[in-house]
Amino acid sequence: MSDEHSPDLNISPEMVSSEPVRPISPPPKKSKAKYIILILLIFIIGSGFVIYQLWDTLQQSKLAVLEQTKIAAAQMHQLEQKLQQLQREVEQQTTYQQRLQQVESQQQQLTSAYKTLYQRTRKSGDAEEWSIAEINYLLQVAQQRLRLEHDIETALLALKAADERLQKAGPLFLTVREQVSKDIQILSQLKIPDLSGMVLKLGQFSNQSANLPLLQGLQGLPTEEKVVSQKSDKPHANDWSDIGEAVWHELQKLVTIRRNTQLESGLLSSEQRVLIADMLRLKLENAKTLLLARKTTLFHQELKDIHAWLERYYDQQDMQVSSLVTELKNMQQIQLIPTIPDMSQALVALQKINADLAPNSALEPQAVAP
């Protein structure tokens, strides 16, 4: 029976392999779950770290915003305080301006009343009128000395004298005195050249011009000397025929011929030396004249000519000559006429005030020299 029901398996020997057959195992399910769990854990940890970083950044941003808010609030508070202070200052300034306007109005009223009283009480020829006339004269003198003569010292004295008289004048002349004080201060600060000292120095050098040593002397300069030869062994004349020849030889002993080998360094006669000294003295006197006339350009040119004359004819190693050269160089740097600003405002203001107070006064406005 076993034979009837057994299947017929026809297995050929070629089908039988010598290698054993390996069973196919299913994939492990537990290892995949582990990988998945590990990945999820890593993702959760990373997400938590990122969330923490974002939260920390947000907290820092909140703190920074709060800090900036506090700073802005403090600045706003300071601005409000400054604004309130400015408002108070503006209110005070407005009050001051109102008070100033009131004071100016009162001052104008007082000035008008004073003018009226002054015109009623003022008499022709009184002491105050003479004082104002003196002030006007002194201011005109200051203007003329400055513009015409460039005399700063005299103008300054005139302004100071006018200021002394303005001290006794009325309050209407306060603006004039204020302008005179400004003019005095400006003139006092000007650098005034010492013209008197320069004139004295040029006069001293002019007196010393005859004693300055010259380069050209009377002895010791290179010359060619030729003495006419004479025969010392010439016999004396024994008869009248030899007298002429003997006289000629005697005259030759007395003749000496000198020739100057240089043009301007040779011997000078006494007349030439005196002429050179006189020319130097005349140049110095001309420089003094130009100095007193305050002609700066011509004065400087004359000093240059004197310097050239000294270099040409005088000994530069001598102490007196070198001192004169040094003084000439220093004087060439001096401006004889300094720049003088306009000083006519005080005079114009005085004449205007006087014209307003006394229209029929003899003190009339005069043109001021520009």
Describe the protein in words.
By secondary structure, the chain is mainly alpha-helical. The protein is 66% helix and 3% strand. The protein folds into four domains: 43-121; 127-192 and 339-357; 194-217 and 269-337; 219-233 and 244-267, no CATH class. It has helices spanning 2-5, 29-121, 127-149, 152-166, 174-189, 195-207, 243-254, 270-292, 296-313, 319-331, 345-357; strands at residues 223-227, 256-260. Strands 1-2 form a two-stranded antiparallel ribbon. The radius of gyration is 59 Å and the shape is flat. The N and C termini lie far apart (165 Å). The model is unreliable at 1-9, 218-235, 257-265 and 362-370 (pLDDT under 50).
Short synopsis of the structure:
The protein has 370 residues and is mainly α. The chain folds into 4 domains: 43-121; 127-192 and 339-357; 194-217 and 269-337; 219-233 and 244-267, no CATH class.
Cα shape: flat
How does the helix and strand content classify structurally? mainly alpha
Q: How many alpha or pi helices?
A: 11
Strand content: under 5%
The number of distinct β-strands equals: 2
Q: What is the ordering of alpha helices and beta strands?
A: HHHHHHEHEHHHH
Radius of gyration: 59 Å
Q: Mean pLDDT across all residues, rounded?
A: 76
The span between the termini is 165 Å
What labels would you give this structure?
370 residues; mainly alpha; 4 domains; two-stranded antiparallel ribbon; 11 helices; flat; disordered N terminus; disordered C terminus
Topology:
Blueprint (H helix, E strand, L loop, with lengths): L1 H4 L23 H93 L5 H23 L2 H15 L7 H16 L5 H13 L15 E5 L15 H12 L1 E5 L9 H23 L3 H18 L5 H13 L13 H13 L13
Antiparallel strand pairs: 1-2
Helix pairs in contact: 3-4, 3-11, 4-5, 5-11, 6-8, 8-9, 9-10
